[in-house]
Design brief:
The complex is a heterodimer of chains A (346) and B (477). Chain A is an alpha/beta fold. Chain A is built from 16 helices and five strands. The termini of chain A are far apart. Classes of the chains: A alpha/beta (346), B mainly alpha (477).
Chain lengths: 346, 477
C-alpha cells in the first residue's frame, strides 16, 4: 500500500535556523515598548482611553442595561446614534442615571426595541434615535411584511465573555486605541493633525469616536447621500407608515407596562444627505403624522436650531469632538420639556 | 472562538500547558479530543452533534467496509457515508438555495410551487470536516488506507481544533502517523509555531482586515459606482485580502498545531506567482484542490479519456468546487470561469506540444504570470460580489466602461486607493520572486536583531489593530 501525502508540509517541516524561544520574549518586550511609546505620544496629544464597540461589548452593555432596571437609559439607533450621542455625557446631564449605548452601525432602532420589548426583565427608558431612512424606509416595511424575527439580544458564550472583558480591559486602558489606528497613523507620521482630544468615557461607553481629520469630506458626504438615496428602497406609503407607527407603539406599550419609557429622537443629516432626506421623506408626510399618532415623546433636531446647525463633516455624523455638546444640549432639551427624568440630586 | 481573539489565545495556552505535562500519550490525545469539542462548542454546542454524527458514521462505515469483501456491501456502506456527509452539507448549506431554485424553475415552467424555507445558522466548518470524514471512508474503500484502531484517535483527528473550522483539509492517512507515535512538542518548532501564529494573525488582522478590507468593502458595495481605477483597486484589494485572510488563517492553524507538536499540511504556495491556471490550483487552497482532484476529478475520468471528457471533468469539478464555497450562483460562476480557463490552458498546452514550439522563455513566462494574476483577480469579482449586477458593473469599470451615473469617489481616503493597488502588486512581486522558496529559507539568513525587530513590530501592530475584529472569510464556507 503506497500512500502519497496529498500536500506538502514545508511550513511545519523545520524551524528557521538559530530561532530560539528567548527571541520571542525579546520580541514581546519590544512590542510592549513600541505600544508604550505610541501610548505616551497619544497621551501627550490629549487622547484618553475609550472602549469603542464590538459585538461582545454590546452584549455586556445589554446585560447591564437589563440589570439597571427602571433607572437605566438605553440609547438605540444606528451609526448616527452611536456617533452623536455620548453615553457618558448623557449620564452626567441626567444626574448620573446609568446610560447604555446599544446603537449598532447600520441597524435601525426598531429591531432592538422589539428585542427589548420582548425581554421580560427589561424595564428601563429607551431613547430611540433615528434618521428618516431608518424609520420611514422600505427596510422596516419589509421586515413587518415578511415577519422576520426580531433582533436577538446579543448573548455571550464563554469565549465571547472572555473576549468582551479583554477588549474592555485593553481598550479601557490604551488611549492609542481610542481612534481608528489608520487615522492615528497619519497623525503619527505627521501627515495630518491629531484628532481633537476627548475626555474619557465610562467603562462601557461605546460611543464612536469619529473624526474628520484626514477625511475627504466631499467624497464621504457624497457616499452617504448615495447610500440614503438607495437605502430603504421606495418611500413608505401612508398606510405603511401607519402600520409602522402602530408596531412601534405596541412595542413601547410593552416596555411601559413594566415601568419603562420610550421616546424618539430624529437626528437629521446635513448638506447633500439632508437634501436626500428632505426630498425622500418630507416632514409633512412622514415625521408629523408619526408624531401625531405614536403617542410617545418624539422630537426632531429639525426643531432645535442649536443642534441642527452643528457641523456634520460627512453629512451624516458629528465629529467626535462635537458629540458631547450635542448630547448635553439634547439632554437639556429633553429635561426642559419634561420628556425624561433626571436622577434626583441627593 | 476566532483565532484572532483573546479567548483563543488563552485556550491555546491552557491546552498547550496540559499537553506538555507528563500525562500518558493516550490521555494527552483524549485531552486534545475534549479540547476540540470545547473549541467547537464555543460557537454553538448543538452543532457538536453534527460533528459527532459525521465522526461516528465514518468510523462505523470504514470498519464495515474493511470487514467485508463483498463489493456490493462495501459500496452500500460507502454510499451511507456519502449520503450522510453530503446530506448534512446539502441540508444546512444548500437547503434554501435548492428550494429557491426549484421554485424559480417551476415558476419559469408556469407551474409555481412554494417550498417552505428554514432559516438555520450554517454550522461552522461543516464543509471542511465532512470532506475529511468522507476522505477516510473513501480511502478505506479504495484499500488505500486501513481503518484506524481506536475511535479516540479518529475523533481527535477530526476535532483537532487548529484545522477543525477552516482547514487545511487534512487527509486521515497524512495525520495518522503523528498519532501512532508518541511525541512531545519540540521547543524550537513550538517557538516557530508561535512565530507562524503571529505572522498569520498579522496577515489577517493588520493587512487583510485593517488595510485592504475597507477598500474592497467600499468598491463591492452594491450601491457604489466605482470608476476605472477604483474598480481595479477594489478587485486587487480583494485578491490580496482573501489570500492574506485565508493564508493567514492557515499559518495560524499550522502554528497552533506546531505548538502542540503536530504538523499540518500547507495550503498555499505563493499562488499569485503561478504561471497558468493549472499552476495556480497547485498553489491555491492546496488541500481542497487535491481533495477535489483525488475524489472527484479522477473518478470522473480525469485526463485519461480524451480531450472532451477531460474538459467535462474539469468543468464539473470546478462547478462543484465553486458551489462548495457558498450557496450562490456567483460562486458557481467563479468556479466555472476557472474551469473554462483550465480547459483553455490545456488546449494551448496541447497545441504547443503538437506544433513542437520551443520551451517558453523568461519574457513569455513573466507575461503569462501577469495574465494569470489579472484573470484570477477578475474571477474574484464574482466570488466577492453580492450579485451578478454588481460583478458585471465592476468588471465593466475595470475594462474601462464605468457606470454612466455621475458619481464622486467611492473610496473616501486616498490611502485606501493606494493600499488597494500597492499591496496586491507587492504581493504579486513577492510571490513571483519567491515562488520556489520556503518561508524558512527566506528567514534563515536574517540576523537575530532584524527578526526580533520585525516580530516586535508585528505584535505591536496586532495590538493597535485589535479594534477591528472580523471573522475569517473562509469560516462562512
Amino acid at each position: 500500500m503506497t500512500i502519497v501525502p496529498s500536500s506538502t508540509f514545508s511550513s511545519s517541516a523545520r524551524a528557521p535556523e538559530r530561532l530560539a524561544p528567548a527571541h520571542l520574549a525579546w520580541a514581546a518586550i519590544g512590542a510592549v515598548a513600541l505600544v508604550g511609546a505610541l501610548e505616551f505620544d497619544a497621551r501627550v496629544h490629549g487622547l484618553t482611553p475609550r472602549v469603542g464597540s464590538s459585538e461582545g461589548v454590546v452584549a455586556l452593555a445589554v446585560r447591564k442595561a437589563i440589570q439597571s432596571g427602571t433607572a437605566g437609559v438605553s440609547i438605540l439607533g444606528s451609526s448616527r446614534g452611536l456617533a452623536d450621542i455620548d453615553a457618558s455625557i448623557l449620564s452626567q446631564t441626567l444626574g448620573g442615571r446609568p446610560v447604555f449605548q446599544l446603537s449598532q452601525d447600520g441597524v435601525p432602532c426598531a429591531p432592538m426595541l422589539d428585542a427589548l420589548a420582548h425581554e421580560p426583565q427589561f424595564s428601563g427608558t429607551v431613547l430611540c434615535t433615528t434618521e428618516p431612512t431608518g424609520l420611514f424606509g422600505r427596510a422596516e416595511r419589509e421586515r413587518e411584511r415578511t415577519g422576520l424575527p426580531r433582533a436577538e439580544l446579543p448573548s455571550l458564550t464563554w469565549a465571547g465573555f472572555i473576549d468582551a472583558n479583554a477588549a474592555v480591559a485593553l481598550r479601557g486602558r490604551l488611549a492609542v486605541l481610542s481612534f481608528d489606528i489608520r487615522v492615528l497613523a497619519r497623525s503619527l507620521l505627521g501627515l495630518s493633525p491629531w484628532p481633537a482630544p476627548r475626555r474619557s468615557g465610562a467603562p462601557l461607553d461605546r460611543t464612536s469616536a469619529l473624526t474628520s481629520v484626514g477625511l475627504d469630506t466631499a467624497a464621504a458626504s457624497l457616499r452617504w447621500a448615495q447610500l440614503f438615496e438607495r437605502g430603504g428602497g421606495e418611500s413608505t406609503t401612508a398606510e405603511e407608515l401607519e402600520a409602522t407607527t402602530r408596531f412601534l407603539a405596541a412595542l413601547a406599550a410593552q416596555i411601559e407596562r413594566r415601568g419603562g419609557q420610550v421616546l424618539f429622537v430624529e437626528i437629521l443629516g446635513a448638506g447633500r444627505v439632508r437634501e436626500v432626506e428632505t426630498r425622500r421623506y418630507p416632514r409633512a408626510r412622514y415625521w408629523d403624522p408619526f408624531v401625531a399618532s405614536i403617542g410617545r415623546p418624539a422630537i426632531t433636531t429639525g426643531d432645535l436650531p442649536q443642534l441642527d446647525s452643528m457641523s456634520r463633516p460627512d453629512g451624516s455624523h458629528l465629529d467626535a469632538v462635537d458629540a458631547p455638546r450635542f448630547t448635553r444640549l439634547l439632554a437639556e432639551e429633553l429635561l426642559k420639556r419634561e420628556l425624561i427624568r433626571a436622577l434626583p440630586t441627593p | 472562538m476566532l483565532f484572532n481573539s483573546a479567548a483563543f489565545l488563552l485556550f491555546l495556552g491552557l491546552v498547550a500547558a496540559i499537553h506538555a505535562t507528563r500525562l500518558s500519550w493516550p490521555t494527552r490525545k483524549l485531552v486534545l479530543l475534549v479540547a476540540g469539542c470545547v473549541f467547537y462548542s464555543a460557537w454553538n454546542p448543538v452543532f457538536l452533534l453534527l460533528l459527532a454524527i459525521s465522526a461516528v458514521t465514518d468510523w462505523t462505515v470504514a470498519g464495515r467496509i474493511a470487514g467485508s469483501e463483498r463489493p456490493a456491501t462495501r459500496r452500500a456502506w460507502l454510499a451511507l457515508s456519502i449520503v450522510t456527509n453530503l446530506g448534512l452539507l446539502a441540508f444546512f448549506k444548500y437547503g434554501n438555495f435548492i428550494a429557491a431554485n426549484i421554485e424559480a424553475a417551476a415558476a419559469a415552467l408556469g407551474r409555481p410551487v412554494s417550498i417552505p424555507q428554514v432559516t438555520l445558522p450554517l454550522p461552522v466548518g461543516i464543509s471542511f470536516y465532512t470532506f475529511e470524514a468522507l476522505a477516510y471512508s473513501i480511502d478505506v474503500y479504495r484499500r488505500q488506507a486501513k481503518p484506524w484502531t481506536t475511535f479516540r484517535d479518529f475523533g481527535m483527528f477530526l476535532t483537532f481544533f487548529p484545522h477543525l473550522v477552516a482547514g487545511p483539509i487534512v487527509r486521515p492517512h497524512d495525520f495518522r502517523p503523528q498519532l501512532e507515535r508518541e511525541h512531545r512538542p519540540d521547543r524550537d518548532l513550538a517557538a516557530w509555531g508561535v512565530v507562524l501564529l503571529a505572522w498569520g494573525l498579522f496577515q489577517k488582522v493588520v493587512l487583510a482586515d485593517g488595510v485592504l478590507a475597507p477598500t474592497a468593502d467600499a468598491v463591492f458595495d452594491p450601491a457604489a459606482r466605482a470608476g476605472v481605477l477604483e474598480a481595479w483597486a477594489g478587485a486587487l484589494a480583494f485578491s490580496a485580502q482573501i489570500f492574506l485572510d485565508f493564508g493567514g488563517y492557515t499559518h495560524c492553524a499550522i502554528g497552533a498545531a506546531l505548538i502542540l507538536g503536530f504538523r499540518l499540511p500547507d495550503n498555499f504556495d505563493s499562488p499569485y506567482g503561478a504561471v497558468g491556471f493549472t499552476d495556480f490550483w497547485r498553489r491555491w487552497h492546496i488541500s481542497l484542490s487535491t481533495w477535489l482532484r483525488d475524489y472527484l476529478y479522477v473518478p470522473l475520468g480525469g485526463n485519461r479519456h480524451g480531450a472532451a471528457r477531460t474538459a467535462a471533468s474539469l468543468l464539473i469539478t470546478m462547478f462543484l468546487g465553486g458551489l462548495w464555497h457558498g450557496a450562490a450562483w456567483t460562486f458557481v460562476a467563479w468556479g466555472l470561469i476557472h474551469g473554462l480557463l483550465l480547459v483553455f490552458e490545456r488546449g494551448i498546452r496541447a497545441a504547443w506540444l503538437r506544433w513542437s514550439l520551443p520551451r517558453p522563455g523568461a519574457a513569455l513566462r513573466g507575461s503569462a504570470l501577469v495574465v494569470t494574476f489579472a484573470l484570477v483577480t477578475a474571477a474574484w469579482v464574482f466570488f466577492r460580489a453580492a450579485d451578478f449586477e454588481t460583478a458585471l458593473r465592476l468588471l465593466a469599470a475595470m475594462l474601462g466602461n464605468p457606470p454612466e451615473v455621475a458619481a464622486g469617489p467611492v473610496i473616501a481616503h486616498r490611502w485606501q486607493l493606494l493600499s488597494g493597488l500597492a499591496i496586491p502588486l507587492g504581493l504579486l512581486l513577492a510571490h513571483a520572486r519567491f515562488r520556489l522558496r520556503t518561508l524558512q529559507s527566506l528567514i534563515d539568513p536574517w540576523p537575530t536583531p532584524l527578526r526580533v525587530a520585525l516580530l516586535s513590530m508585528m505584535l505591536a501592530l496586532l495590538v493597535l489593530f485589535s479594534n477591528d475584529n472580523r471573522a475569517f472569510i473562509y469560516f462562512q464556507f
